[in-house]
Each structure stands twice: as structure tokens, then as C-alpha cells.
């Protein structure tokens, strides 16, 4: 990803599965794509595969006595809506789990109403594949066992021929789909971690590059001042001594040399001053590099014009505070926007961070918030956290320059 991530260049990472939105998706446009993102998730290949399977199950109803009842098709619509919404809609974990159980209940109802269609248990394969993508393996296994027991009881109740064999066959399909989903999800998580680490490295590299440029500018300024400035001062003094002698006092070329040496010395002093006047580290590029891989929350960044930070250690503290706030807002608050404001008040840099999510009623200070507080304390600053009126997290850190 280019260093100009603060502009229009964003990292694009393809999606692998049709499970919940990954943390490391970002398109070549601002972090939120609105309806485009919704449609992109809805039309993913695996979503289309699930839709095709659903259609195939529906077509098999033609040979079932209950194949055309409104109740059966209403339940089928509930199933497919739950399937599509589970991936495309921005639900939290509880909402997705609820949709999974809605799908499971709908699949069992379809098997009950049309047991002789022959394909209705395939719906459970779709459900368990989604569970494997969202849940821990042990939870998926327990849910699959419970669903297959219910499937066996339904098939036995309707006097289906060899119900245990049918359940075992479909359990094999479920296991295959669950393993694929689990490994795909593991690959996604590894990819997400690599993308976030890469964003962290890019942000750090941006700060290091600025720090190296400032160090080089300072070195050049010192060399100009100590070497060229010293020699020009000596030349100016020698010309003044030469002009004071009677035989050279009226010569215009010596007066011109004096004037040029004086002007050149002033020019060098101006250049040295300009080299010493650093603009500070480019915090904006570094912070936007951190936020670029995240689809949510969107970073709303405001840096006051008078903020100049040349200390890499101070810049790193600000970087880590914003990074942790982005992670907390994405994982815990389901926030859509993270507002970050950096201002200067006297000899302090004031960092204010606020998200529009809904945190828990009582926020327990875990490792993330504790680490933020420790970083600020190590820099002899102050750290305060509170909640907004809507329940979002608000952080204010004052750091001495």
C-alpha cells in the first residue's frame, strides 16, 4: 500500500467466505461504501451457491405431496432471508447467532413438512457451514449433534426408510462443509492480522521516514552553520581588515566583495533557520494508514494547524492510542465513526477520541485501556475516559510537549 494512504489509495483485500464482515476489508474509496458494500456481500459467490442450493431444494418439492403449500414456501423464504441477512446486514454477534437458529428452525420445519422430497436435509448443511465460520469448533460440533438428533427423530416419526443412514450421509456432508468453513475462516483471520500488522508497519514507517528526514535536515543545518558560516565570517573579517588599509580603502572591488560576503552569510543563516524549522512528523498519513484496513469505524480526523510534533516517542504514543481506540470501537462498540481530534493547548498536546457506538453500561478496563493509560502516564501526561450520551467511549489524553 502506498504511503499516500491519506488520499484516495486504499488497500483492497478480497473476501474469502460469506461469514461476518472481516476487519480488514477496504475498497478504493472511503471506508464505507453504503449500498455498494451491501450488494457486494449479497452477491458473493458462496452466497450465490447457497441460493442455488435453496432453489434446488425448492424444485424437489414438485414430487412431494406438501410441495406447493403456502406454509412450506413461507418457511423457505424465512430460511433464505435469514441466510442472506446473516452476511449482508450489519448485525452484531448476537444478531447473527439468532439468525442462525432461525435458519436451523426453518430447516427443521421444512424437513417436517416435506420429508419425502429427499433434499430438504441439505438446508442443514448450509446452516452448519455458517456455524463453523462464526463459532468455535466445539460449539459447532454440539449444535450439529443436536440438529442431527432432531433430524433423526423427525425422519423416524414419519416412518422414513432407514432414517439413521440418511442422517449419517448428511452428517458427512455437514462435516465436509464445516471443515471448509472453519479453515476458510482461519485463513481469513490470519489474513486480517497480516493486513493490520502491515498497516501498523506502514504507519510506523511513515513516522520513521519523517524522523529521519528531520534528523538529516538538522545535520545539514549544523554543517552549513559550523563550516560554511564560519569560513564566510572569517572571509568577511579579512575583507574588512583589508579595506581598512589606506592603499585599498578606495577600491570598489573590495567593497563589492565585502557586500557579497555579507549577503551570502545572511543567506546561509536563512537557509539554516529554514532547515531547523521543522513542520513536525506527518501524523495524518500515519493515522490514516492505521484506519485504512478497517471497514468500520470510519476515521474522522482533525489535526489543528498549530500542532507540531517532532518527538517520535510522543508521536508513537498518539499512534498507539488511536490504534487501540479503533480496535475497541470495531470489536466492542460496533461503532460507525471514530472522531479523533488533536489540538495544542499551551505546552500540551490534547488528544480527544470519541466513537458513536454503544458500549456496555459499565466499562471494564481491560488490557487495551490499561495499556493506553500506562503509555500516557509514562509520558507524564493525564488520561481520562468517560461515555457519551449515546453510550460511546470518550477518551481525552493530555501529553506534554
Provide structural commentary.
This protein has 3 domains: 3-195, no CATH class; 213-276; 296-400, Histidine kinase-like ATPase, C-terminal domain (Heat Shock Protein 90). The chain is 61% helix and 9% strand. Helix 7 (163-243) packs antiparallel against helix 10. It starts with 34 loop residues before the first helix and ends with a strand. It is of the alpha+beta class. The chain is elongated and about 130 Å long. Residues 1-35 have low confidence and may be disordered. It has helices spanning 35-42, 45-59, 70-88, 93-113, 122-134, 137-157, 163-243, 252-276, 283-291, 312-333, 367-378; strands at residues 298-303, 337-345, 348-355, 382-387, 393-400. It has 11 helices and 5 strands; from the N terminus they run αααααααααβαββαββ. Helix 10 (312-333) links the parallel strand 1 (298-303) and strand 2. It has a 5-stranded mixed β-sheet with strand order 1-2-3-5-4, with helices on one face.
**What's the number of helices?**
11
Q: If strands are numbered along the chain, what order do they take across the biggest sheet?
A: 1-2-3-5-4
Structural class: alpha+beta
Distance between the termini: 31 Å
Any idea what the radius of gyration is? 33 Å
Q: How many distinct domains? A: 3
Contiguous runs where pLDDT drops below 50 for at least 5 residues: 1-35
Shape annotation: elongated
Percent of residues in beta strands:
5-15%
Mean pLDDT: 77
Percent helix, as a range, is: 55-70%
Query: Could you give the order of the helices and strands?
Result: HHHHHHHHHEHEEHEE
Largest sheet: 5 strands, mixed
Task: Kindly state the number of beta strands.
Answer: 5
Amino acid at each position: 500500500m502506498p504511503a499516500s494512504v491519506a488520499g484516495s489509495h486504499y488497500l483492497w483485500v478480497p473476501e474469502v467466505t460469506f461469514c461476518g464482515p472481516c476487519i480488514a476489508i477496504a475498497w478504493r474509496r472511503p471506508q464505507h461504501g453504503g449500498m455498494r458494500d451491501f450488494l457486494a456481500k449479497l452477491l458473493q459467490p458462496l452466497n450465490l451457491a447457497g441460493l442455488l442450493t435453496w432453489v434446488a431444494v425448492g424444485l424437489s418439492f414438485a414430487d412431494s405431496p406438501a410441495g406447493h403449500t403456502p406454509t412450506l414456501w413461507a418457511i423457505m423464504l424465512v430460511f433464505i432471508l435469514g441466510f442472506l441477512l446473516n452476511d449482508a446486514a450489519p448485525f452484531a454477534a448476537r444478531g447473527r447467532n439468532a439468525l442462525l437458529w432461525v435458519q436451523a428452525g426453518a430447516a427443521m420445519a421444512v424437513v417436517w413438512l416435506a420429508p419425502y422430497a429427499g433434499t430438504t436435509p441439505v438446508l442443514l448443511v448450509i446452516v452448519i457451514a455458517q456455524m463453523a465460520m462464526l463459532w468455535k469448533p466445539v460449539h459447532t460440533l454440539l449444535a450439529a449433534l443436536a440438529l442431527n438428533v432432531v433430524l433423526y427423530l423427525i425422519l423416524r416419526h414419519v416412518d422414513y426408510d432407514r432414517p439413521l443412514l440418511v442422517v449419517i450421509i448428511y452428517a458427512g456432508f455437514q462435516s465436509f462443509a464445516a471443515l471448509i468453513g472453519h479453515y476458510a475462516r482461519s485463513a481469513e483471520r490470519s489474513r486480517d492480522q497480516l493486513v493490520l500488522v502491515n498497516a501498523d508497519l506502514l504507519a510506523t514507517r511513515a513516522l520513521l521516514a519523517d524522523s529521519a528526514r528531520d534528523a538529516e535536515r538538522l545535520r545539514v543545518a549544523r554543517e552549513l552553520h559550523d563550516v560554511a558560516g564560519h569560513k564566510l565570517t572569517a572571509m568577511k573579517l579579512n575583507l574588512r581588515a583589508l579595506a581598512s588599509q589606506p592603499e585599498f580603502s578606495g577600491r570598489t572591488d573590495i567593497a563589492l566583495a565585502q557586500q557579497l560576503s555579507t549577503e551570502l552569510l545572511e543567506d546561509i543563516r536563512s537557509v539554516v533557520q529554514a532547515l531547523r524549522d521543522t513542520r513536525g512528523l506527518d501524523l495524518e498519513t500515519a493515522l490514516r494508514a492505521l484506519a485504512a484496513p478497517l471497514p468500520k469505524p470510519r476515521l474522522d480526523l482533525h489535526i489543528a494547524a498549530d500542532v507540531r510534533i517532532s518527538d517520535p516517542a510522543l508521536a508513537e504514543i498518539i499512534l498507539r492510542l488511536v490504534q487501540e481506540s479503533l480496535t475497541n470501537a470495531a470489536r466492542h462498540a460496533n461503532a460507525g465513526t471514530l472522531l479523533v481530534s488533536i489540538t495544542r493547548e499551551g505546552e500540551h498536546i490534547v488528544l480527544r477520541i470519541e466513537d458513536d457506538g454503544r458500549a456496555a453500561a459499565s466499562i471494564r478496563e481491560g488490557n487495551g485501556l490499561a495499556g493506553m493509560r500506562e503509555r500516557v502516564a509514562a509520558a507524564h501526561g493525564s488520561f481520562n475516559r468517560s461515555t457519551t450520551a449515546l453510550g460511546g467511549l470518550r477518551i481525552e489524553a493530555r501529553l506534554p510537549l
